[in-house]
Amino acid sequence: MSNERERPLESVPQFEEHFLEPKTYVSRWSVTKTFGHDLGISAAFRQWRAKSHCHFVHGYALAIELTFSGYSLDDRNWVIDFGSFSDLKKNILNFFDHKTIVAEDDPQLRFFQEGERLGVIDLVVLPRVGCEYFAQFIYEMTVSWLEKTQRPEIKLDYVKVSEHGSNSATYTRSYV
Fold it and tell me: What is the pTM of this model?
């Protein structure tokens, strides 16, 4: 046969042969804890460097996904207890729920500080602002919580922060 696509069936490796070869593998489980848009983590912020409408104060009901993994399960056959997140959730809410978040280098920082002094906003000042940084900030917060409260073999794979269904940012850390 001149055409490769027309080769006889005998020349194609058999499915069973391929998958019966000895293989070595390591089991790993992943689980995700979600604080969804329905929770109403309402945050207002602005990206003062933006040349678009994003330089205006605007807000979203943020959604946060935390994905953990482990190479073993605990005595309940869980990677992590979903009921153990109350302290972490409080910390996330303290920084993001019904807050106005501005960058520490925002040229209008004094304006926002005056708004807080007058009681019209609940201000949070962070080194940077935006979904990408929020994901990194929550990642670092979660790693700290994880080290204090969970089994050492549990790892945080990534954090995803969504403004809405179309915009999200994911932060992960790779060790090289």
Answer: 0.84
